[in-house]
Amino acid sequence: MEELDIDALVFDVLGTLVDEPAGLRAGIRALDPSLDDAGTEPLLLLWQQHIEREQRRILDGDRPYLVSDALDREAAGLVAGAAGVDDPAAVAALALSARRLPPWPDTVAGLARLAERFPLLGLSNASRTALLGLNAHAGLRWHQALSAEDARAYKPDPEVYRLAVTVSGLPPERLLMVAAHAWDLRGAQRLGLRTAYVARPVGDPPTASDRFDLYADGLDDLADQLDTRHGRKRSARG
Predict the structure, then answer these.
(1) How many other CB atoms are there within 10 angstroms of residue 9's CB atom?
(2) How many CA atoms lie within 13 A of 35 on its CB side?
(3) Which mean pLDDT values do the consecutive 10-residue runs of the chain (238 residues) have?
(4) Looking at 136-202, which runs of residues are DSSP E strands?
(5) Cα torsion for 71, 91, 135, 41, to the nearest 10°?
(6) Contacts of 1 (CB under 8 A, 6+ apart)
């Protein structure tokens, strides 16, 4: 088995470490407690489609850069309007649900295990402020958390991945990007990072043409594979 010699791990956050749809569903149901699953799912899809579309417009240069908080407020307004709610306080509370996302069951313990051997960096499209709230709510522990806000772009723009390269002081090939989204890993590959796909109930599964360095069922599986593939034992450096 080929050795995978890396010096730090870079983690996507939304979807990879936290269950984003679950947190948004909770916010939508708090907006309108009468909603059942059938009523909640179209509103969740409306939110997700707005965020994806507007981030793409920003990436394509069709819209000036806006932090994720602003896009969340727009999405919350659309969802509230579709639900027939016009209370500004309720809309503001819904927007903040994007920061109250539960971790996957293996996230906290998995990060702690991996942090014993590697420096861990979070790399998220969430704003600096949103990332602070996300980390605190989900109990995520990093050596450093990086926001795409500092690149004034969104993944998969290469400037976002370059943040991890710059902050770590490492060559791209010494970083392992970990994500549940194949599109995210492809973006990291284009800058030369090594890649690990972690399967989650949500996300963007690899296609037959994708070639990532590792494929894992979760963070414990990822740690096991790194124990086998990583030739030199390391301890995390802050």
Answers:
(1) 25
(2) 23
(3) 85 98 97 94 98 97 97 98 95 96 98 97 97 96 96 97 98 98 98 98 95 97 90 42
(4) 144-147, 175-179, 194-198
(5) -80
(6) 228, 229
